[in-house]
Amino acid sequence: MSTTNVTLGDRGRLVVPAEVRVRQRWETGTSLIFIDSDDGVVVMSREQARERIRQQLEGKDLVNELLADRRRDAQHENATA
């Protein structure tokens, strides 16, 4: 990971330095996503975001996690009813 400083231009425009574009393999027309969080902003291409999400979800059984959550919610509703 490296740090590159850029200045926000008029009308909110940013210029992504050439070395960053080359390193990230961003070409003219690449669609970028800005992820705004309490800690700052992350910028990545749609493909990079898709791959990051796949890596984060790898090995998870989302269906069973959702079913377990629903069962807990139902048990809690039955206990308070």
CA-atom Rg in angstroms: 20 Å
Order of helices and strands: HEEHH
Number of helices: 3
Number of strands: 2
Index terms:
81 residues; alpha+beta; 3 helices; elongated
Commentary on this structure:
With 81 residues, the chain is of the alpha+beta class. The chain has one domain (10-80). The chain contains three helices and two strands, in the order H-E-E-H-H. It has helices spanning 18-24, 46-57, 62-80, and strands spanning 32-37, 40-45. A two-stranded antiparallel sheet has the order 1-2. Strand 1 (32-37) and strand 2 (40-45) form a beta hairpin. The longest helix is centred in the last third of the chain and has 19 residues, at 62-80. The protein is elongated. The termini are far apart.
